[in-house]
Structure formats: structure tokens, C-alpha cells
Amino acid sequence: MSATLAPANLAPAILALAKAEFRIATRNRWLAIAAGLMVIFALILTAAGSGPSGSLGTDRLSVTVASLTSLSVYLVPLIALLLSFDAVAGEAERGTLPLILTYPIGRGPILAGKALAHLAILTLALIAGYGTAGVAAVLLDPTSGAGLGALLRLIWTSVALGATFLGLGYAISARAKRPSAAAGGAVGLWLLAVVLYDLALLAAVVADNGGAFTTQVFPLTLLANPADAFRLFNLAAAQAGAAASGVAAAAGAVPLWQSAASLLLWPALAGALALVSFRKVTP
Amino acid sequence: MLNLTSLTKQYGALAALSAVSFEVAPGERVALLGHNGAGKSTLMKIVLGLIPFDAGQVSVLGAAPGSAQARAGVAYLPENVAFHPALTGEEQIGLFLSLRGESPARARDLLGRVGLHDAARRRIGTYSKGMRQRVGLAQALIGRPRLLILDEPTSGLDPVSRRDFYALLDDLAAEGAAILLSSHALTEVEARTDRIVILSGGHLVARGTLSSLRAKADLPVTLQITPAPGQEARLAEALPEAVRVGGQLHLSSAQGQKLAALARVAGLGAMVADLDLIPPSLEDIYSHFSRRDGQ
Ligand SMILES: Nc1ncnc2c1ncn2[C@@H]1O[C@H](COP(=O)(O)OP(=O)(O)O)[C@@H](O)[C@H]1O
Ligand SMILES: [Mg+2]
């Protein structure tokens, strides 16, 4: 299982793996699908945010970024899981896994190559979608330049969120025996992380009625979920959600550095989980 | 190059390999024969370090299976080799070259060596089974491997490609590579290998050169006798134990009695128009060993 290639040859090998994976994904239209999804939703949200933006005292782009943040919480994990669920289980089913595992390259570099390609696709799709939204917002409201920082922040945090779910997707893919089981696991994780988790928290907060759970435990549970940490960070950084509900108020109490730390720690954690899972695979 | 001592592998209650021992020396081509389920693929995957084993010793290029040293010098062609259908032959081989620290620019060259020069820029999804098998072979040639593990390499190849394949193996062996290849038919490997190892139900039931296996099996030869015109009935009377097949008589004889049987037929003089001596076929020899145990 050790790295077996000479160090000088390791980087070219990982890049070659990434290149092949990128080719496969573009030929299977994954890049077009991901970018198309992002662009369509970004345009819809830009158009929908056409109310009297001046009333909020913010520029149009900042408003768009706020709605893009809510969208990304659902869409970015979904795209990342779609890209990653087949990574190991698909190779096992196709019968391509045993051969590559006899090559003098470790399992870490194999995963790294795949992750590099999938991250590139995700980043390109995000830039296409958010870029479109940014251009549209500036065209509609010339003062939107003020929201540019928020847009860039949204892009890098989305990449971090995507990296987390890529890693989790690889882990699911390695633990599943078949691609269909991996797809089921990916859908399950998505539902759990971005839908059910928040519903359960909401129910707990309502039941708690402003007690110790809401003030003490609730912020931690938000930090523990990468999707919630992503939302927290972007909303808090934009200081957009502070006025709304009691939930948002509690969320607003979480310092920015904590949500940033969660956002950055999760990709590493998910990557480690993916590697541990992949190392257990016997072809 | 490769040394197996009492290699044992269990799949739950099923003994896939039971105390199998043999070795493959540099420059030697060894055929691993056995019916489906005999344990050939399991043995190869253990040698490659892909799956663990339960008992015995395995030494690959003097190292543990799957270790850095072993992987650097071992090439593998899996049974029913598969590749990603969206990549072209050239892209796939280019990737494998990079994984062995070599320049991907050599891909066309390698594909040319296995007769795939013209298809190099087409997607593997459009290849026939025989063409995929050649891509598999091309990747096994990367980086001058010292040990080649080829699992049913000639399945899906037409007779001409099969001959080209064995010619490639001859070159590799001449350069000192050790080769272990599996097959479920002795007729496929014939005289193209130096030694034969026969597995049956996970047990090693025979090993040696083809001629030594032939001698050990000691199967009877068949004398095929064509009677002279009008002499058929008289001839059958003179050789009561012979069997009539078409217009001929077939007389079976143990290896030790071969000369006596010949003399007896020769003594029949003018009754006999022609005589052929048919040695036991490769399939007969193979069945003799592979059925002896457990089948
Ligand atoms: N992963 C596995 N789990 C359980 N049994 C297996 C597994 N792989 C192979 N076997 C069994 O081990 C035996 C040997 O299989 P294999 O090595 O593939 O045979 P061969 O390659 O000679 O056809 C067969 O009985 C097969 O069913
Ligand atoms: Mg087999």
C-alpha cells in the first residue's frame, strides 16, 4: 500500500490520473450538466431578486449572493456527490480497479488524482454559474460592484463545501459494493445533511422554546454540519441574516472564525475518511 | 522470480487453494492450467498482493506480494480486462505509462507492438473483445517487467493474434522475464510454454514439462489401421479387440506395449493397407490430471 513511485514521478502520475478523470467526466457530459445547472439557477435567482433592492440598503449583487448561498447549500453537495459516488464502486464494477491497484502508485495518490479532476469540474461550474449571476447583477444595477467580495467569498466557500462532499462521496463509493448502492448512499447522505438535519434542529429549537439547547448546543450542531457551517459563514460575513428569526439570531452568535474553521476542517476530515475507506477495499 | 510454498487460501468454508507450491524462474514461461473455479485467478491475485492469503509463503522478486519492490517489477493482465470506454486506447496507455513513471508519448509505439496502431485514437468503447485484450497486453509490456502475470491472456484472440501473442512472450522470455499465464485448455498453450502446472479444485495435481506429463499420464496410444480392399472382415477377425470406426479399425495399446502391437499389425501383412500411430491428445492428458482430484 506504500507509495512506490519515485517522488519525481509522483506529481506527473497524479496529474495524468486527474487528466484522464477530467476527460471521462467531460465526455460523459458531467461538466456541461453541472455548469448548466449552476447557470440556470443563478439566472433564475438573479431575476427573482428583482424587487426594490434599495429598500434593504444593499446593492443588487449582495442580495443575489444571499439567495445563491441558500441555493448552494443544496446544489453544491448534490453536484459533488453526483461526481464522486461512482469513483470506486464504478471501477470495481467495470473491473478496472484490480489492474490499477497493481501499479506502483499508492491509493492516496489515486484518490488525489480523482479529487483534483472533480474539484476542477466543480470549480468551473461554480465560476460559470456565479459569474453569470455577477455579470447579470452588474448589468441590472451598476452599484453591484460592492457585492464582488461577497461573490468571491461564495465561490471559495462553495469549493470547500464541494470538496467535503466529494470526500464523503468517495468514502460511500468505497464502502458500497455496487454503484447502485453507492448512488443510494449518496442520495441518503444528501437528504440527511442538507434537509433532515436542519428539520430536526428546527424541531428541537421550537420544542426548546429559547432554552439552553437553543443558546448553548444549537450553534455547535450548526458548526458540526458542513452545509450549515457554509451557510453560517456566508450569512454572517454578509451580516445579512442577523435581523430575521430567532434561529438566525442564535446563528449570528457564532463567531466568524468558527464557521470558517469548520468549513476548512471538513474537507480534510472527509478526505481522510475517503482514504481510510478506500484502503479497506479488496478488489 | 516467483516462489510459492504451501500457499493456502480459504473463502469461508471453500478451500480455493490448498498447499500449492511451485516456482517460476527468470526467462521461464509457465502455464497454469485448470477448469473454471480451479483457483487460477485467486492464485494470481494473491501473487499481485490484491487479496490476502491464509497460510504458506509467497515471494515475488524476493519481496512480499504487493510491496513497492514487487509492484515496480510485476505486470498484470487481468481476466476479461476492462478499461474506461470513454478513453481512447492512446489515452489509456498514456495514463498507464505515467503511472510507471514513463513518458505517455510512448503510447502509440506500444499499441503498434500489439497491432493496434490504427485504432489508437478511437475510444475503447468501440473496441472488440480481442482489441481490449491487446490493450491489456500493451499495458503489461510497460517498463520491462521482470515478472508477468497473465490471466487467460489468449481468450478472445483469434488464432493469428494468438500466434503473435506467443511470439511476444518468446521475446520477453528471451530477455529474461518470468511469465506465468493461465488457461483452461492445454491445447491453447501447447508447446509455447516451458512448464505446465495443473490446478484442480485448489490442489496442484501435476507439474512438469509437457513431455514429462505425457510420460507420467501413461495414456494408451491408438493404432489406426486401414484395411486393404476386401480384407476388412478378415482383419477384424485377426484383431478382435479393435474397434471399428468408419472404414478403419482402432486398436488401443498401453505405452509399454506399443512395439509389440506394431509388430502384431505388421505381421498381418497384405491385409493392412495403412497404419497411423495416434498419441494421446493434449486434451486427454489434461483431463487425466485435472479429473484425478475431486472432479
Ligand atoms: N471473492 C470470492 N468470494 C468467495 N469465493 C470466491 C471468490 N473469488 C473466487 N471464489 C471461488 O474460489 C474458487 C476459485 O476461483 P478462481 O480463482 O476465480 O478460479 P479460476 O480462475 O481458476 O476459474 C471458485 O470456486 C470461486 O467460486
Ligand atoms: Mg479465473
From TrEMBL, chain A:
Transmembrane regions listed in the UniProt entry: 30-49, 61-83, 119-139, 151-172, 184-207, 256-278
Keywords: Membrane, Transmembrane, Transmembrane helix
Pfam families: ABC2_membrane_2 (PF12679)
Molecular functions (GO terms): ABC-type transporter activity
GO cellular component annotations of the record: plasma membrane
Protein name according to UniProt: Cu-processing system permease protein
Automatic annotation (TrEMBL), chain B:
UniProtKB keywords: ATP-binding, Nucleotide-binding, Transport
Classification via CDD domains: ABC_DR_subfamily_A (cd03230)
Xref: InterPro entries: AAA+_ATPase, ABC_transporter-like_ATP-bd, ABC_transporter-like_CS, ABC_Transporter_VariousFunc, P-loop_NTPase
PROSITE patterns: ABC_TRANSPORTER_1, ABC_TRANSPORTER_2
Domain of life: Bacteria
Coiled-coil segments: none
Signal peptide as annotated in the record: none
Membrane-traversing stretches: none
UniProt domain ABC transporter: residue ranges: 2-226
One Pfam family linked to the record: ABC_tran
GO MF annotation list: ATP binding; ATP hydrolysis activity
Keyword Lyase among record annotations: no
Keyword Nucleotide-binding belongs to the record: yes
Name used for this protein in its record: Cu-processing system ATP-binding protein
